[in-house]
Amino acid sequence: MPLSADPAVVPSASPSSRESVLGAFLRAHRERLAPADVGLAPGRRRRTPGLRREEVAQLAGLSATWVTWLEQGRPVSLSARALASLAAALRLSRAERAYLFELAGRRDPQQAADETVPPVVLASVHAIGGPAYLLDRQWTALAWNDAAADLFIGWLDAASAERNLLRAMFVSPGLMALVEDWPHRAARLVAEFRAHSIRHADEAPTRTLIEGLMAESAAFRDAWLSQDVEDREGGRRGFHHPQQGALQFEQLTLVPAAAPGLMLVMLLPG
């Protein structure tokens, strides 16, 4: 049975609205596809290029009226499931699919399931001279270089079993002693994590991490309940290293295009 959104009949959006941009995007990609591209017979003579709306609706398991209203830029409520069906029907690339979900303001369920880290992204961590590490969605370190292992006592050093940055910041005495102005930095980290994790706050690993820290750390609980939200802007980072003494770096965080769910963090000479 086709998916149905049962949207109310409302006027089309203005040409500059997000809904109109979404509609133009869907229409352009529908018109680029030939019936043979999706396994359909050419049928009778076509007056316009590409697939018909009815054909896209059939391929996606959606209502033809629903597809029409989307292309007209009407503010129809979109589910992630319906968007995924449209993306598959239109044969969208990974970048095109991500753009579609961004326009619709929805989180792509496929992105959460795809945890494969491209080898070039892993290799980039070790190609950086200063401390560098790669974080996943829950800020668990997937890779780090020797400089990061030497610096981050209580987190990335060989003696530590804790690889999640957020947990280490609140439960590892070694990392807490290492970080300059720990109360401020720890609270700021929680505010940054809140902003970063909003798109996957309902995922089980994220919920488990937050619930566990709420029970383990009063400092984390207070910071989380404060509802503070901050961008991960980088800037100066100070450390009190037991062997190397006082250290200063400039932090730079990048999101690899090949793995948009991850963060590559570098500490540059301050």
UniProtKB/TrEMBL annotation:
GO MF: DNA binding
Superkingdom to which the source organism belongs: Bacteria
All copies of domain HTH cro/C1-type, residue ranges: 25-97
SUPFAM superfamilies named among the record's database cross-references: lambda repressor-like DNA-binding domains
Transmembrane region(s): none
Entry-linked Pfam families: HTH_31 (PF13560), MLTR_LBD (PF17765)
SMART domains: HTH_XRE
InterPro entries registered for this protein in UniProt: Cro/C1-type_HTH, Lambda_DNA-bd_dom_sf, MLTR_LBD
Protein name: Hypothetical membrane associated protein
